Amino acid sequence: MLPYGRQSIAESDVEAVTEVLRGDWLTTGPAVGAFESELAHWTGGVPCVAVTSGTAALHVAYVAAGVGPGDEVVTSPLTFVATAATAALLGARVVFADVQPDTGNLDPDSAAALVTPRTRAVTAVDYAGHPADYDELRAVADGAGALLIADAAHSIGSAYKGRPVGSLADLTTFSFFPTKTVTTAEGGAVAAADPERFLRAARFMNHGLVRDPAEQRHPGEGGWHQEVHAFGLNYRLPDVLCALGLSQLRRLRRFRARRAELVARYHLMLSDVPGLTLPAQRAYVEPSWHLYPVRVRDGRRREVYDRMRAAGIGVQVNYLPAYLHPVFEDLGYRRGLCPVAEAYYAEELSLPLFPCLSDVQQERVAETLAGIMS
Predict the structure, then answer these.
(1) For position 277, what pLDDT does the model report?
(2) What residues in the chain have per-residue pLDDT under 50?
(3) What beta strand segments (E) does the chain contain?
(4) What is the pLDDT of residue 114?
(5) What pLDDT sits at residue 163?
(6) What is the rounded (10 degree) CA torsion for 282, 177, 181, 163?
(7) What's any GO biological process attached to this entry (predicted)?
(8) CA dist., res. 263 & res. 197, Å (int)
(9) Per CATH, which fold does 11-249 belong to?
(10) Local structure of 48: helix, strand or coil
């Protein structure tokens, strides 16, 4: 089965991991700091803290934003459920705003209509690697006295109006799952420009430990002493995985270029196929394409999905609107809440897209899809 996404591992990645395995550190060591520093080159210098997954990154970001019981988080439903679940787990009420019909990104007008004095954060999702409309969303968040959070799980290396993802929001989260542009196997990161929020994130992902004697309540205990002032969790990404991530980041430009080349080829090969809507791109955006999401019109998405997979092509659907998961249904969310997102989901189909997808394999995908649609 040709997958819709997969990791791109080179010998340099294997060597980087092997070097750590032969060294003194497996968990928190020098590779962690090196990975975080390299990642900051892609966020316009905004400092980053590495964590164990994209989900952990969202949890850490919401904690750093001060999200808690009684707060509201306005976000997109067209995302993996973790974007909303991590806010709900902190006791916040998740408010789902609708999406733009062409990009699938959070609609600023819909978000603006839903913010209230209780809104703590507005969380955008860079669907498929295409950055959201951050200037408009910044105005919405600022007008509500809320923080702007970017779920950039899909969009590492992207730019919006010449500014890199990671510098556009108050807090930005990344994912390094194997299907993403850069992988650490499992892993994620949080970027935060504000020093206080960065410190809150860095402490929460490390049990809340305070090691600096100048900040401890009881610093005279001895050199071993550390304190917890607020509860945290162990979300530390180990050295061995950061070594993989560092090696991957050094090839990010090549990964992005190949993905862009494949997207351009899909556009060319599929532009005349009846019943398809191809993904949109704003003129002021430089996407780092994670998905190639076509829309299959006329109610044929299920048929096309089944026939493509029967042909050995592992297409995928991204995503069931988050509030349609039973856990949100049980909280009172109902179908029809975001009609544009539901319409997008009903037609969406992600075609294979990853750097080592060959031209021949891609041509097979396009020809098979065109044959089914004809």
Answers:
(1) 98
(2) none
(3) 48-51, 72-75, 93-96, 119-125, 147-151, 159-160, 163-164, 171-175, 188-192, 209-210, 227-228, 276-277, 285-286, 292-296, 348-351
(4) 98
(5) 98
(6) 50
(7) polysaccharide biosynthetic process
(8) 37
(9) Aspartate Aminotransferase; domain 2 (3.40.640)
(10) strand
Q: Are 54 and 153 in contact (CB under 8 A)?
A: yes
Catalytic annotation, pick one of 59, 180, 203, 301: 180
Place of tokens 């062409």: 102
191 phi, psi to nearest 5 deg: -110, 130
Q: Which amino acid is at 217?
A: R
C-alpha distance across the termini of the chain, in Å: 23
DSSP H or E run through 202? helix 195-204
Paired tokens of 14: 């294997």
CA–CA separation, 165 and 187 (whole Å): 18
Question: Which residues are CB-contacts of 177 (< 8 A; sequence separation ≥ 6)?
Answer: 53, 54, 153, 183, 186, 187
pLDDT (0 to 100) of residue 26? 86
Q: Cα torsion at 237, 240, 245, 250 (round to 10°)?
A: 140
In this prediction the pTM is 0.97
180 assigned to active site: yes
> Under DSSP, is residue 283 helix (H, G, I), strand (E, B) or coil?
coil
* Dihedral, CA of residue 59, residue 128, residue 349 and residue 310, to nearest 10: -80
What integer best gives the mean pLDDT of the chain? 97
Domain extents for the chain? 11-249, 252-373
CATH of 252-373, one of 3.30.70.260, 3.30.360.10, 3.40.50.920, 3.90.1150.10: 3.90.1150.10
Tally Cβ neighbours within 10 Å of residue 293. 27
Please identify which residue in the block is written with the tokens 């919405």.
140
Which are the contacts of 41, defined by CB distance < 8 A and separation ≥ 6?
none
Quote the tokens at residue 248.
């991957």
pLDDT at 298 (0 to 100): 97
Torsion of CA 368, 5, 291, 351, to 10 degrees: 10
